[in-house]
Amino acid sequence: MALLTTLFAFLYHLPLVYKWLLKPYYIASLFMSLAFLAIRKTPGVCEHLSTQREDGNSCDFDWREVEILMFLSAIVMMKNRRAITVEQHLGNIILFSKVANVILFFRLDIRLGLLYLTLCIVFLMTCKPPLYMGPEYIKYFSDKTIDEELEKDHRVTWIVEFFANWSPECQSFASVFADLSLKYNCEGLKFGKVDIGRYGEVSKKYKVSTSPLSKQLPSLVLFQGGKEIMRRPQVDKKGRAVSWTFTEENIIREFNLNELYQKSKKLGKSKGEKSEQLTVPAFSPVPEEEEPEAETISAMDTESKKDK
């Protein structure tokens, strides 16, 4: 079932997958993920590799290599059950493919294993997954502007994401939060983000830990009247986040976005009506010209005849 879910999700987002795969990060990751397969199957190279196959065919996987690949494939399927975006699916596949390559290369030849592990470390330090650059209605806060914006108008409800650019979970969630902002942003309901990896004081003030062990990234906080109403994920007494899946459906349900949106639209309408009343000038009525009476007209006619 998990395999079918992953397959359907991949096929549904196939047009977007092509765009992502054409980016340098994913192209390099794809080559690194297929490195052992390429070496094991390439004629002229595979003949010089060692093997534990009974038939001595060094250009095919032996039973231990198949076992390692099957085990890591099962882990990928388990991890992808909780993946909510295509980026997360691809990220899990790439990550565990590299882990499998490290194990297989070390088992084949320790020199190849060290070489591949060095390449992985260099790639991790120099290359980062591409950030989300799509459309969104999100205001980005700094340590100086977040308090000002939250206190600016108490009628406005804010949903603020506390994130860090280095967090893979935050990078995967970026497209989901952007889609929510496009659907629900209005005059009385706004979406914001603040990078607590950059602004440590904001992290301390709003009690969102940036430690990877706390698993509090990303954190969504609902503010009404400048005060925190709720947050997800919740934090237990030990400072660890309670497990919660950041899917669009969960956020809509937990934060009651449909009802919030309907209430917040009324604020926009009331503001619009007030602005119309202020901008429409009060013109004084133009006095109508009085028509001359019939007696006056006849008197003027008789006088003109006498003159003639």
TrEMBL record:
Sequence intervals crossing the membrane: 20-39, 114-134
| Residue runs in coiled coils | none
Domain of life, per lineage = Eukaryota
Q: Where is the Thioredoxin domain?
A: 132-269
Region of interest (Disordered), residue spans = 266-308
Question: Where in the cell does this protein reside?
Answer: Mitochondrion membrane
Q: Which Gene3D superfamilies match?
A: Glutaredoxin (3.40.30.10)
Indicate the principal place this protein occupies in or around the cell.
Answer: mitochondrion
Which is a Gene Ontology cellular component entry for this protein?
A: mitochondrial membrane
A single GO molecular function term of this UniProt record: disulfide oxidoreductase activity
Keyword list (alphabetical) reads: Membrane, Signal, Transmembrane, Transmembrane helix
Q: How does it sit in the membrane?
A: Single-pass type I membrane protein
| One GO BP annotation of this record | brain development
Which PROSITE patterns does this UniProt record tie to the protein? THIOREDOXIN_2
Instruction: Report what the protein is called.
Output: Thioredoxin-related transmembrane protein 2-B
